[in-house]
Specification:
Mean pLDDT: 91
Number of strands: 26
Radius of gyration: 24 Å
Structural class: alpha+beta
CATH topology of one domain: Gyrase A, domain 2
Shape: globular
Distance between the termini: 43 Å
Number of helices: 21
Largest sheet: 11 strands, mixed
Length: about 700
Amino acid sequence: MKNSSRFTNQVRALLVGILLISSVGVMSLPNTKALADPGCILDSPGSKIKHVIYLQFDNVHLKRDNPNVPSDLEQMPHLLNFIKDNGVMSGNHHTPLISHTADDILTSETGVYGDRHGQPVSNSFGYFSSSGTKFASSFTYWTDPVSSFDTQYSLLNSTGQNAPAPWVAYTRAGCNFGAAALANMEVENTGSDLKTIFGVGSPQAIEGTSHSANAVADFEGIAIHCAAGDPLCSAANGGVPDVLPQEKGGYSGYNALFGHKYVAPQISSTLPMKNLNGNTINGSNGIPGFPGFDGMSANVTLSYVAQMQEKGIPVTYAYISDAHDNHKTFSAFGPGEAGYVAALQSYDRGFDAFFKRLNTDGINPTNTLFVITSDENDHFVGGAPTPTNCDGVTISCTYTQIGEIDANLQNLLASQGITTPFAIHFDDAPNFYIHDNPTRTNSTVRAFEQATGKLTAVNPITGNTDKLMVAMADPVEEKLLHMVTADPQRTPTFTMFGDPDYFYETSPSSPTVFEAPAFAWNHGDVQPEITTTWLGMAGPGIKHLGLDNNTWSDHTDIRPTMLMLLGLQDDYTHDGRALVEDIKTDALPHSIKDHNDSFEDLATVYKQINAPVGKLGLCTLQVSTQALNSTTSGDANYNNLENKLVSITNNRDTLKGQIINVLDGAEFGGQTINPHQVDALTDKAHGLLDKVTDMCSTDKHGKDKA
């Protein structure tokens, strides 16, 4: 378990390889052994794509955390070389804000930021009630309400409706869709999820209450969403209606299977179901079933994916848990530590077996779109390894000091004279919720923000006094960063992006500052180290570029790129754009082919004005930080800067709407690009970016131009 574990941060705070130079040989075999699905219509160029395999890691790194120790992917050469030899590996891929497992995965699945899927703040979000601030988990099934007394959907779009579900584009095309532990597409908990899916008083809901461990093994983590009328998801097989009551255009006649109990008999030729090592997949209760989200190692996840594909489920989305924590002892590994290296070697063997097995089945890059990525890139917290020249491959690393630094904000703020009741979600980038939901200009809020900006702590690892705040955003900047949803109760009073060595909490029994060796990998913050991750793609239509560090992208770009290649379409406009730089010319729509350069120029600057960690987002966050920490008389500077941010957001939103209509129209609507229109929009975007960038710069006297 770790920061990005599928457990809530509240629970977490209480618990307070060898490098091979090899490649996978891919033979162009016909798809003869895997069952075909003639009803699945993937209208790809030349109709070459017959299978879709999407994998998202929890915190697996392309870049090195220690310059002497090969990175996670370097220690998984069968995966890294498969992507580089058959497609493109982008090392210039980014997260939204805050960078967290829930928000990152949902953004990747949907192609929209958190303000349009409802989870822009963390693995949990706050809301206000008469008794103060409470929190709800982001990990719930797609149609779950926030709670029994708050019937608002946990996942909601910008108009307050249930957010469109990511499997719909596939099932409407006649494709069965398999999900293995990827967020919110399957049962995430044994409480509200089972009641939502199976009904209050159902045997499944009763089991969830009376035998929770059994219910996890039986029902959590695994699902198949079937095409309309497909017998695989019939009631005889345990299928239930796939209910999406607010899906645009309606969604009736579709069924789904939820849980290992119902899915395993349909995909596994022998029971109990085995992982790639030939071992039975067991739940925590020791009986066959889902092993829990932290138990979804490569050997387990890839077994589910392979068996789904082999049984004629052509689209599979899956999650793979991190390798840098010991999920049995709930302790953290450091880079190059023996347990970490062993875990990566196991993952590498799993991918070797997976690719070979699929190739034998006739599932390979000649007919399969592989898209593989990771959520946030965690920051390691610990001292130097011993010996200093260890590489983890020939010389193991050990750590005498390892673990994040926990800082109790309740105590730290009290030392600044702040006793106003508040709550946070426990995190490296905590969202603050001040009780009674005061407005952002309230004097209590302003005093609170200024005090937070001054907090310091003595680092128990280095002995230095650290300033804890790196950047701050209130609802004005949060809106620009796509962190404000249609439900105002979820909007934080303000967000603090902190020193990445620290994890912030308010547990009454916790010391003010202490090292917590159980957790050593932090995320959520705004530093490039954390927000920069990777995206790998291989298959028909993908260029063979190897490593591409030039094309700037983020998680919203994954879905439009995939759907454009597949000839599918959502019934909403994405926030992302298709990564045409990585797509072969003959796989591009005719509407883009003739003006590809103009499309790329517009798409490139669009990302920089709209992405939370694009140039405009990072620049305005600096301005926001200055505003919230301003102490000028009457808050004149604060008001001036905030008004500028409001104006920038309004201008950006107008321009982004015009740009995405052009991009989306070319990608999915067959709309021919007008070069003059595109050039004008590109110039406007650069003009806005230049104006805002100028606000962040300083003159020769060091005075901020804002």
